[in-house]
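Data deposition worksheet. Section B asks for the primary sequence of the deposited chain exactly as it was used as input, without tags or linkers unless they were present during the calculation. Section C holds the resulting structure in C-alpha cell form. Section D is free text for depositor observations; keep each observation to a single sentence. Incomplete worksheets are returned to the depositor.
Section A, Depositor: J.P.
Section B:
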Amino acid sequence: NELMTARIYRIITADENGNFRPDDPITREELAVILVNTLKAVGKPLPTYSLSMLNKYMDRDQISSNAVSSILSLIGEGIMNGRSDDILAPKDTATRAEAALMLYKVIDRN
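Section C:
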C-alpha cells in the first residue's frame, strides 16, 4: 500500500510513538520533510542552506529539529515561503493552496 511504499523509500517516518498518522492533517514542517524526502528518493536532492536563512522568522525556534534542513532547502530554493515576512508557522496546518503551490514549484524546477 501507499503508506508502506512511502516508508520503504524513507519519504515518511513514524512519530515519537511509532505511529504514521496518515489520515491526520499535515503541518507545514511535515509537508516540507515529505517533499524533501521524496526528492531524495527519486535522486533529485535539494542543496543545503545556512541556518542564518531562518534568522528573519520570529518563530524559527518552533521548527522541529528533524524539519530544519528540509525547511531550509525549500526556502533556499524558493519552494516554501513564510506565512508573512517574519512568521514561518511551521506547526500550522498546511492549506491545500500551500501544498499545491509547493508541489507545483517542485515540479517546475526540474
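Section D:
The mean pLDDT is 93.
The CA atoms of residues 45 and 108 lie 15 Å apart.
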